[in-house]
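Folded chain entry —
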Amino acid sequence: MQISKKRLNQNLKNQIYKLLYQVITDIQNPNEARVLLESFLSKNELEVIARRLGIAYFLDKGKSYTNIKDNLAVSSTTVAAVAKDMKTKKGFKVALGKIRAEEWADKWTKRIGKVFKKK
């Protein structure tokens, strides 16, 4: 999809962005997120977003550019661009914080589960 060169009324633009942000905020689970994203984004758009998040995730885990480039089939330039964006764009910090919190919760749920299974 291409964006029209015609300017959108700023008030209308603000309204539809607010709708978008609210819909994203109201997502209840990963399946709802998948359905929403697959409905509104092309396969390529979704792939680009997923790979960028994957790059950020693996950079956060300390993986090398080469490892990321080879495993996610992206260029070094793309990895470098995401690394730069991670320093300047707050969304990466938010996303990675949510991922870390989820991983921490999963880890402790398993540990606690093992303790109670022993009894």
Observations:
- The mean pLDDT is 93.
- The chain has two domains: 1-40, 43-117.
- Residues 43-117 form one domain.
- Helices lie at 10-25, 30-40, 43-60, 65-72, 76-88, 90-117.
